[in-house]
Amino acid sequence: MASTAQSVDVVIIGGGPGGYVAALRSAQLGLSTVCVEMDKTLGGTCVNVGCIPSKALLTSSEHYEFSRLHAAEHGIGVGNVSLDLAKMLERKNGVVGQNTRGIEFLFRKNKVTWAKGFGTLHPGNVVEVRGAPPENNTTSFAARNVIIATGSVPIQLPFLPFDEARILSNIGALQIPSVPKHLIVIGGGVIGLELGSVWRRLGAKVTVVELMPTILPGMDDDIVKEADKTFRKQGLELRTGTKVVGGKREDDRVIVEIEKDGARETLEGDYVLVSIGRKPSLTGIDPAALGLDVGRRGEVRVDDQMCTNLPNVFAIGDCVPGPMLAHKAEEEGVVAAEVIAGKPAHMHYRSIPNVVYTWPEIASVGLSERQVKESGREYRVGRFPYSANGRARSMGESGGFVKMIADARTDELLGGHLIGPNASELIAEIVLAFEYRASSEDIGITVHAHPTLSEATKEAALGVLGRALHI
User: Fold this and answer.
1) Is the peptide bond before 321 cis (omega within 30 degrees of 0)?
2) Burial (CB count within 10 angstroms: exposed 0-12, middle 13-18, buried 19+), residue 338
3) 317: which DSSP letter?
């Protein structure tokens, strides 16, 4: 096989955020680059059935709810507001198409070869690509370096396997043809709350069932408490500390059996979204045959340069340990490409933000207060509510707050947490501060434009020092 294989510098298996960014960076560095992707479009889960389409629907549903419930507060009369769901879904698909075509353009611009088909990694770093039917052409590449970027797949419940018609993963939940009467969401994490919020705004009854004592497990306790209160007020029914013990589909309805404190209950809906997490996918990779070191969940073990135990084989993204986030995968892809090119790149995870795109948005970086407390170090907390921020009040978005945690002795920032309007954008300032190991005072003495939401970040930083001005 190797004798007929085309020799290239880098072959990336997977064209998601990690894979396509690794391909672009490799090409920028002058490496001959091939990216293998079996789907009809580039971008992986994130661009096609994850981050991008969900944000399109979140934005559309927010506009719909604003028009229906809040426009009048601004002196805007819109009459009877109607929902054209087909149009909304069509717009979502259009946004996805713009993004996937954009990646294809970047590949052409940077001379990255897209090998369309199913990639298999063989010993000796030979990658075989079997094209799509009916041709089923096979091409082989002898790769000087391989980057595994095969992503992840949603975890199923054994008694509620996905059919994407009534029992949905994120894929099916993005294309429900009519607003559900009752959408049952199993899992109160990011995906469940975001997609649950979309359909709640559009008129569905939404029940979220979460096994852990709270929604958003692992996030800062104060943020979770505020989010829980806000989402309940918006109309989401949250069932925390509740176990799903059974379920089945009966024609156009889904039956879900739940249990809390020994008491059982039956929920009936027309759709169920199962969002209990994702697991690494190693499509086209046989770890045992290759001698590839993987963990118990099937994740590929790597060092801080994204190197696996195999010579010149790297792995990035959802198929390696760490948070399953597109921006984390992208940075890992850049590191892998730069290491291949001989640059002294290393990956670190201290400054990776986490965002929940509900409304209000939630964003965090660093440690929660509980984690800091458990570490035993002395710390100080600053907190500033958006109700005391002039821009937030002018927007009619005065709920939520910014919370900053810093070391009591050095004032180095340890955690930043926001719940409120535009938190996904505001977190970037705190992430940059984390990257340079800044103190709360560094943010607090930096001039912020007035009136802006970012002033709440400045005030929370000053609050750590006990000198917030506007509260």
Assistant:
1) no
2) buried
3) G
Does residue 314 have a pLDDT over 50? yes
Report DSSP letters for 140-193, one per residue.
Answer: EEEEEEEEE---EEEPPBTTB---SSSEE-HHHHT--SS--SEEEEE--SHHHH
DSSP letters, 349-414, are -TT--EEE-SSSEEEEEE--HHHHHHHT--EEEEEEEGGG-HHHHHHT----EEEEEEETTT-BEE
Measure CA 74 to chain center.
33
Residue 417: what are its φ and ψ, rounded to 5°?
A: -140, 130
- Evaluate if residue 323 carries a pLDDT over 70: yes
Residue 328 and residue 289: Cα distance in Å, rounded?
A: 28
List 257's β-bridge partners, or say none.
246, 266
Residue of 259, 189, 249, 192 lying closest to 224 (CA atoms): 189
- The encoded tokens of residue 434 equal 């984390």
Q: Catalytic site residue 74?
A: no
Q: Which candidate in 70, 346, 450, 470 is catalytic?
A: 450
Closest residue by Cα to residue 196 from 187, 206, 186: 206
> What tokens does 298 get?
């099937």
How much is the pTM?
0.96
Q: In terms of C-beta density within 10 A (0-12 exposed, 13-18 middle, 19 or more buried), how is residue 340 classed?
A: buried
Query: pLDDT tens-digit profile of 394-446?
Result: 999 999 999 999 999 999 999 999 999 999 999 999 999 999 999 999 999 99
Mean pLDDT of the chain, nearest integer: 97
Judging by DSSP bridges, how do beta strands 118-122 and 126-130 pair with one another? antiparallel
Q: Determine how many CB atoms are found less than 10 A away from the CB of residue 409.
A: 10
Phi, psi of 412 (to 5 degrees): -65, 135
Structure tokens at 365: 């970086």
How far CA 78 is from CA of 64, 227, 345, 431, in Å, comes to: 11, 30, 54, 40
C-alpha closest to that of 237 among 222, 220, 215, 264? 215
Q: Which residue, 1, 27, 21, is CA-closest to 10? A: 27
Q: Which amino acid is at 289?
A: A
Strand partners, 246: 257
The torsion angles phi and psi of 80, rounded to 5 degrees, stand at: -80, 120
Give the three-class secondary structure for 446. coil
Give the other-Cβ count within 10 Å of 465's Cβ.
17
| pLDDT category of residue 2 using cuts at 50, 70 and 90 | very low
On whether the CB atoms of residues 140 and 119 are closer than 8 A, the answer is no
Backbone conformation region of residue 185, classed left if phi is above 0, alpha if psi is from -120 to 50, else beta = beta
Kind and range of the H or E element at 427? helix 423-435
